[in-house]
Design the sequence.
């Protein structure tokens, strides 16, 4: 178990992990939600520290920066590449070529800017259960990767980022981490947990359906984009819930 968590941390963050050691890919993926909880714990610590010095909007900026730093901006890079590659009417091969290009285009730049802005707006608007949402949202976002791997084939037969996770098909039992997250959400927030669970499912379904209709496959960049969209969307949704209350 510990080895799977360490490997997951190595893939999802810049923290020391076991990316180069032998590991069970399917088991590691099943622990992604747990790794997300660790990321959320770090985010809570950053937010508590930032809130002791700055007002909520400024603290939210620190939180957004912290999320980018913890992940090494890896998922933001995936979002940029995905936006550049899937924009417009492009063939599968052309889209994959663009996503593989290390240079960022104008569409990718706009996508990253919008994502960061939405995260800031969402985190700034969190009031009730703020620390609970800061803990859970990163975990649910990483859990979305399981659905991406389960529902779409990998788009680069020659290999690439994330290829190792597609070599063994996921079983339903591998989704236990999301069940734990849902239970934790209900335990901490009661019926309001329906919003994060429902929002998570809606965003994952929508993004993966879009991927299927565009190129009918998925890559490591697209998984990273899925994580970023989940985080931004959930923070914004939960801030709206706080406002309505």
Sequence:
């Amino acid at each position: 178990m510990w080895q799977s968590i360490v490997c997951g941390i190595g893939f999802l963050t810049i923290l020391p992990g076991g990316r180069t050691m032998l590991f069970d890919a399917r088991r590691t993926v099943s622990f992604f939600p747990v790794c997300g909880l660790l990321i959320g714990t770090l985010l809570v610590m950053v937010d508590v520290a930032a809130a002791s010095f700055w007002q909520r909007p400024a603290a939210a900026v620190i939180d957004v920066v912290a999320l980018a730093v913890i992940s090494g901006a890896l998922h933001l890079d995936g979002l940029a590449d995905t936006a550049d590659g899937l924009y417009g009417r492009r063939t599968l091969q052309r889209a994959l070529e663009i996503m593989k290009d290390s240079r960022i285009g104008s569409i990718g730049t706009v996508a990253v800017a919008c994502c960061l802005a939405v995260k800031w707006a969402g985190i700034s608007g969190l009031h009730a259960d703020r620390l609970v949402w800061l803990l859970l949202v990163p975990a649910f976002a990483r859990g979305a990767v399981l659905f991406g791997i389960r529902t779409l084939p990998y788009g680069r037969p020659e290999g690439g980022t994330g290829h190792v996770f597609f070599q063994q098909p996921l079983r339903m039992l591998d989704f236990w981490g999301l069940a734990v997250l849902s239970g934790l959400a209900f335990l901490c927030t009661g019926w309001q947990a329906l919003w994060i669970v429902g929002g998570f499912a809606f965003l994952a379904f929508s993004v993966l359906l879009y991927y299927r209709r565009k190129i009918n496959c998925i890559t490591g960049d697209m998984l990273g984009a899925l994580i970023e969209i989940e985080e931004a969307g959930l923070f914004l949704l939960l801030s709206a819930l706080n406002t309505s209350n």
Notes: The chain has eleven helices and no strands. The first helix runs from residue 2 to 12. The mean pLDDT is 90.
